[in-house]
Every structure is written in C-alpha cells, then in structure tokens.
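Prompt: Have a read of the protein record below and flag anything odd:
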Amino acid sequence: MEKPLPPGQFETKNWPILHQGDVYRFNENEWSFELFGEVKENVSLSFQEVMKLPKVTSTIDMHCVTTWSKFNTAFEGIPLRNFLELVTPNEDVEFVKIYGYYNGDRFGYSANLPLKDLLGDDALFVYRWKDEGGEWQDISPKHGYPLRFIPPETFYLWKGSKWVSGIRFMKEDEEGFWEELGYSMTANPFKEERYQ
C-alpha cells in the first residue's frame, strides 16, 4: 500500500544531508550523555553505558521541512523510553528538549518535543541504518555520528537532533534551536506545521 505524502512534500530515495554549523568530531573520552532538568537526580552516561542499553530496530518515515520525504528507512537504536527509565521525573513533566553539539557547544542545538509522543519504538537514538536497497551501515558524521535522534513520522526532521548530548525534562514547552528562529513548535508534517 502506497503511503501518503504530507502536503508540500516530494519523495526521495536518498537521505539528504542538511545541518547547521560544523560537523562534530566524536571523541569517546570527552563524550557523555546527560539526563537532567525536572528529575529527582541528574544522570550522566558514558558512551559505553549508553551503548549497553536495550536496543530495537524500527522502520521510520522521515519528513524534512525542506520538502523531501524518505519512506521505509530502518534504524537500529535506543528508544527514548529506555533513558526515561534511568531517571525519576518530577510531577507534571510533559516535555523534553533533546540537545546536540553545535559549533563546539555540546548543548548548542536543541529540539523541543512532547514526551507523550516519544514512548514508542519510533522515537530512537540511532547509530545504524539501512534502506530498501542497502545493507546496515553506521550513520555518518554528517548524519549525526555517533548518535542521532530520529523522531516519529508525525514530526518534521528538524526535531531529530544530530550529535546528541542529552535530554532535559521539562514541565512546560520551550523553544528549541529552530523554534527560536520562527519554526513551528509542534512541527506536524501532515498538518504542514512548518512555521509559527
């Protein structure tokens, strides 16, 4: 069955590369993943600790605000809910900000998302991918190596932070990197929520 394209989108078989700022150079000794914000106690994880977390494989459709859509890309990664199990959120936590490196600042990029939409197998911190014509491969540095967040298909892909560095748990929604520049807070491609 053919999948519907969101309005204003075209289908591509490629995975285009778009990003702001420098491509992050991974250094395992300096890298950590932080869980913080509205939680009882902050948690800091090494790369090895992150990679020991349970993983899943999911097929996720990607929709970019620049108008391309790529269907049926398989990803291997760690569901966001697995990180949620490592902290005790305070009452009324409903949102998260997923941070990534931007021009050397490990928290320079961020994307805001509602937590309730990120509890399935389609909200993944990914490190490997393949599409219908290829074999499994590590994500490239330009795609976010060593770890990139891929959001559910109900969000434009700018909500998928590259070179991730942590999750901040929040009671109230807050603008991320692109939202501060006028992009939609909710970013649903099927409703064409591109800009505020």
Remarks:
- The helical segments are 47-51, 80-84.
- The two ends are 33 Å apart (CA to CA).
- The chain has a mean pLDDT of 95.
- DSSP finds two helices and eleven strands in the chain.
